[in-house]
# Entry
Amino acid sequence: MRVVMFGYQTWGHRTLQALLESEHDVVLVVTHPKSEHAYEKIWSDSVADLAEEHGVPVLIRNRPDDDELFERLKEADPDIIVANNWRTWIPPRIFGLPRRGTLNVHDSLLPKYAGFSPLIWALINGEPEVGVTAHMMNDELDAGDIVRQEAVPVGPKDTATDLFHKTVDLIAPVTIGALDLIAAGQTEFTRQDRSQASFFHKRADEDSRIDWSWPAEDLERLVRAQSEPYPSAYTFHKGKRLDVLASFVSEGRYGGTPGRIFYREGDGVVIVAGADARTGRNHGLAITRVRTEDGRELPATEYFTSMGGYLTTRP
# Structure
């Protein structure tokens, strides 16, 4: 099939690479300009550079809503558009233009975790698996019929970076597998159960801020979700920002006020956690490694020279 590809960052790069290595003909690529957004500088392999290396025409757009783009798409005469990590709304006159419609590739197990940063949100929420879904695009974001979907398990120590590497390897088989079904003439696919749908916003600095009223289990997953190269989970100690780089859920149960720097357990320093911590039934978050405001990384047992005091959500 003649394919136009809409995509950005490493997800789009992997999709384009898979298309270039397939039997399909990539006739045009549309991608976003480079961004200084903290999350968009991560996994930032260039879709434009890869297309140009293979002689594929490239258009750079923030939004695909201008007449010049529409005319270029009509001239390209695509059988299908394939999109992955396109960051803005694609209007119906665009996604409905190709003869076979538009296939969107999304890094979650739809209908759950539509929208942005699905791997990070899924890890924070304790999902047992994550994956990649290829679905037909319609008027509602990430809501069209599912053509192909594959899942991978979330391990007990997996970080968001680990899950990125697990799922990015699914892009090629999911995308090309879906295209093969469409090229073979299949038009009936699996409808999404919209009662199970959830939609998440982009991550921002506020979303990495530690709230000590959360249970320790949730905070431990937040720390893993905000692993390098993502911005770290953070708290405040004596008015200064403190990044939490590694942690575990304590074996012991610790009662008191959330945020209290309480006890050394193994190679960690336990912080009281949970809105109901006063009951003494909660595990704490044992921090093992931190980074100070001036960039020093060190074990928590070296940073916290004595117990007592509090970690706070704000300075």
Summary: The first helix runs from residue 9 to 20. The longest strand covers residues 240-253. The radius of gyration is 23 Å.
